[in-house]
Amino acid sequence: MKEEDDDDDDEDYESDDDGQIAVNSKGLNDVGGEVRMALIVRSDLGMLKGKSAAQCAHAAVSPATSDSTEE
Question: What is d(CA 41, CA 59) in angstroms, rounded to the nearest whole number?
Answer without folding.
Answer: 11
